[in-house]
Amino acid sequence: VARLMNDGPDLFAALRRAFLASQVADFKDAPDVVLWMHVLGCLEEQDPVQSKLLAGEAWRALAHTVNEHNVLWPLQTAHFVEAMPHLAGWLTVEGGPTLEELTAWLDGLRKRMEESPSLGRYGPAHDPCLVRARHVARLVSQLRA
Hints:
Layout: H1 11-22, H2 31-44, H3 48-62, H4 72-80, H5 87-91, H6 99-115, E1 121-122, E2 129-130, H7 133-144
Antiparallel strand pairs: 1-2
Helix pairs in contact: 1-2, 2-3, 6-7
């Protein structure tokens, strides 16, 4: 994480900002910073099964913060840990979005990704990952079924 740029809309830029905040004495114990460090932990986990479990725990705890403007971050997390079908279960918990809200947000994101495919890009420049509009369309279809 330390070598990633911290200016950007993607998951890794958000994690970089959280990591930097965790290094500041006034912020290191802030609840949101601690929760974001759990997201970082799930992405650093080498065991794929454990990383999925940790991602679910982290995003269930952060579900109350997810909205149409930042739904990209849990989506990219799910993509990174290969748990796209589990995304709704992570977020549609008490305090989080309803299934209808989540579906609408993801469908809006899908439309924006069709117009600007780079929106789904995340990770370091030398080894980027990409969530494609078709991945989101498949997820939206599953949520509507």
